[in-house]
Write a structure and sequence with these properties.
The chain has 766 residues and is mainly alpha-helical. The protein has 31 helices and no strands.
């Protein structure tokens, strides 16, 4: 391959213009000189040469593109610093130089045609640019790809893996429409296969940016297929950020939502058999017609007839129309619908694979993709076909009944199920009792600080940290308590027909959970409890001082229907009204003052319970609302030592008395290393040092005051001098103005005398 490249270079040099040959000879001379330099000197020389070459290519791409050959060779240099600089320079040049369309290699017939010099120059530029870009991408894939290097690739030079990965990400974001996009994606996607990969976030960000800028959908579909294949091969054990880029897909809801809402056609067994028979007959007829046309075409060719449809001109016209369609960036409705359907099918296939793995016998360790999959299902739930919703709800029931999910994942699963049922899934006859039981049981688990309700403090599951990362990546950095409050609000506040006993049991358990929850969760729980009591007036009997309902409330049952919630009493509000957080105390007081009958006034403020939980959350370590700082007095209090030393009493403080000195001397005569003597010496030494430090602080303060006063005097002196100079300049200007006026007056007076003398002389002569 290297020999062929050298031969091509020699052949191309024969056709070069003199200016290009001169530049190449200068570059080769510089390379020969750099071989004799030291490493640092060579790097500086290469840096200057790279800057000059890249600047020239960006100024005149079609005329100086051959200068990039030396830069491409430097990308595989043994020196890592040189290869890094060359790779970054090539990325910037390709971002600026590459055209906004996909370069199509010319056919043999096009190469044989005679064209103008401008067209030939453009062809040479596109062909050379495409070849250099392909070589550069191969170098980056070899150095920064997610797959391991082969034995033949280990000895070659090139940039480090971090730089190569960064260059690949930039190329994907800047040139998603250009050639070799598949190679770039195939090198980036394997980085998402490792759960602890540090490069996964960068790769996911670049794929997300490419999806945002994708107007046709082909880049998105290709990335979807690659990531889906990766998830399938690794059995859903990938980085949580692997699914986050696909939340940026823009589906055309006008096309897909109508298809999703269509109810399936219900046919009898006889009708199904007839429909399948008709489809087979249509396929058979189409194949027979195709074979007939093909045989007729072959028969006509045997007689020397040439069909117009086989002409190359028509093929070129069709190719031209396709190229023009790609350049215009527009798609007809049929193509757009087909592309959108394929993207939606690939997206949901990936999400359903994750759910199936979690509900299976051998789920992935830690379920790192569970939370992103649930977030994606919640976002695109209105596009799910009605035929799959019943099976999807059954999978949700299995997941909630099992032990594979963490508490946060169960809350997210409940929220997703609620979003599915609140859309066009309302037509389904789904029993929400199991979801209510899971939510009620979740509230009964104790809170453990920042981990929220049901924190997995005793479960040392390896995927806890990965689940946190997935929560942050998929739920918009929502706090865990906020997530549960959203699930409660949607499942209980979103449905108008819920049993009164279940609502009362939820209100009682919410108040109990608020006692041991962090302030944000407590405010949100009390907000949901207030909404329930306001929507269901019969449940306000919980605010009575004595038990009103029949039966006895059982707080240990995890079924809200069997807990007899109407027999409970919200005594928890009496404790919450004295909460240390003012927002929790105000919320509890507001719930406790609700009227037992009649209309309920609106809540203070316009925020929903989930928003209140987010605003008052203290999981990040700060207090919300912030505690006001204490007021600072005019004069800070000083210690006794500082007051004594400032009054000149250093002798009384820093020296021991006569009796104490006598004890020290007697102890010293007995044993110089006695502990009493050592302790007293250490004490007075430290006290003396404290006194000296206090004196130094006072001296520093005095010097600081003196410097401030000196600075103020200097500023006053400068201001006075400036004012004096201005006054003198003003006086000089006035004096000069007066002198000028006097000169003009004298000049005007002499001229008047001459005029009057002439007039008198004329009168005498007359």
């Amino acid at each position: 391959d290297e020999e062929e490249e050298e031969e091509e270079e020699e052949n191309s040099e024969d056709d070069m213009d003199p200016a290009t040959k001169a530049r190449l000879s200068q570059a080769r001379a510089a390379i020969a000189l750099e071989e004799e330099m030291s490493a640092d000197e060579r790097r500086e020389s290469v840096k200057a040469r790279l800057g000059a070459t890249c600047q020239g290519v960006m100024e005149d791409p079609e005329g100086k593109w051959l200068d990039l050959r030396e830069v491409c060779k430097l990308c595989e240099d043994r020196d890592g610093a040189v290869a890094r600089l060359a790779a970054l320079s090539m990325v910037l040049v390709f971002k600026d130089v590459c055209p906004g369309y996909r370069i199509r290699p010319p056919t043999q017939k096009e190469l044989a045609m005679k064209v103008s010099k401008e067209t030939q120059k453009l062809r040479d530029f596109e062909a050379g640019l495409l070849k250099m870009y392909g070589n550069f991408v191969r170098v980056l894939v070899r150095c920064g790809g997610g797959k391991g290097k082969s034995r033949s690739q280990r000895g070659k030079g090139g940039p480090d893996s971090a730089t190569a990965l960064r260059c690949l990400c930039v190329l994907l974001e800047s040139l998603p429409h250009f050639n070799y996009r598949t190679d770039v994606l195939s090198a980036l996607v394997p980085h998402l296969s490792h759960v602890d990969s540090a490069a996964a976030d960068a790769v996911a960000g670049s794929i997300a940016n490419a999806i945002k800028a994708d107007m046709q959908g082909d880049t998105t579909l290709e990335a979807l297929h690659m990531v889906a294949q990766l998830v399938k091969q690794n059995r859903c054990c990938c980085h949580p950020a692997a699914l986050s880029p696909f939340l940026e897909i823009r589906f055309d809801e006008g096309i897909l939502a109508l298809e999703a809402q269509k109810a399936p056609e219900v046919l009898s067994r006889k009708q199904n058999r007839k429909k399948r028979a008709d489809e087979r007959e249509m396929i058979r007829k189409a194949r027979a017609e195709k074979e007939k046309k093909k045989a007729e075409k072959e028969r006509m060719k045997s007689f020397g007839h040439r069909d117009d449809s086989d002409s190359e001109e028509e093929d070129l016209e069709a190719q031209l129309e396709r190229d023009m369609g790609e350049a215009s960036g527009r798609m007809d409705n049929a193509q757009k619908k087909k592309m959108q359907s394929r993207m939606l099918e690939a997206t949901f296939e990936m999400y359903f694979r994750v759910l199936k793995n979690a509900a299976g016998a051998n789920p992935a360790r830690g379920l790192p993709l569970m939370t992103p999959a649930l977030v994606g299902l919640g976002k695109f739930t209105h596009l799910i076909s009605v035929t799959f919703m019943a099976d999807l709800m059954e999978v949700f029931r299995q997941l909630l009944a099992g032990d594979a999910l963490t508490t946060e994942q169960k809350a997210r699963c409940l929220l997703t199920a609620c979003e599915v049922l609140s859309g066009h899934g309302e037509a389904l006859q789904v029993d929400t009792g199991e979801f209510h039981r899971q939510l009620y049981a979740m509230l009964g688990q104790p809170s453990s600080g920042s981990s929220g309700w049901g924190g997995d403090s005793g479960d040392s599951r390896d995927g806890s940290e990965r689940n946190d990362a997935a929560n942050n990546a998929g739920s918009g950095n929502a706090d865990r308590g906020t997530l549960r409050i959203r699930a409660l609000q949607r499942f209980l506040g979103g449905y108008s027909h819920v049993d009164q006993g279940r609502v009362a049991a939820f209100a009682k358990r919410l108040a109990g959970a608020a006692l041991c929850a962090e302030p944000g969760e407590a405010v949100g729980a009390l907000g949901v409890s207030r909404q329930l009591l306001a929507s269901y007036p019969r449940t306000r009997c919980l605010l009575e001082n004595e038990r009103v309902g029949t039966g006895v409330f059982d707080p240990h049952v995890d079924d809200p229907g069997a807990a007899v919630g109407l027999a409970a009493v919200l005594w928890d509000l009496a404790l919450l009204r004295h909460h240390y957080h003012p927002a929790v105390a105000a919320a509890a007081d507001e719930v406790a003052r609700m009227p037992l009958a009649g209309a309920v006034p609106p809540a203070l403020g316009s925020h929903a319970p989930a928003e209140l939980a987010r605003l008052h959350s203290t999981t990040r370590g700060d207090f919300r609302p912030a505690i006001p700082p204490p007021k600072v007095g005019k004069r800070a209090k000083t210690s006794v030592l500082d007051r004594q030393t400032s009054r000149g009493g250093e002798a009384n403080v820093l020296t021991p008395g006569d009796e104490l000195a006598r004890i020290i001397a007697s102890e010293n005569n007995r044993d110089p290393s006695a502990p009493v003597v050592a302790a007293l010496r250490r004490h007075f030494a430290e006290t003396r040092e404290f006194g000296v430090n206090a004196g130094l602080r006072a001296e520093v303060a005095r010097l600081r005051r003196m410097s401030i006063k000196a600075r103020e005097r200097a500023e006053e002196r400068r201001a006075a001098e400036k004012a004096e100079k201005a006054e003198k300049a003003e006086k000089a200007a006035k004096k000069a103005e007066k002198a000028e006026k006097a000169k003009r007056a004298v000049a005007n007076g002499g001229a008047g005398e001459k005029v009057r003398a002439k007039k008198s002389k004329k009168k005498v002569e007359a």
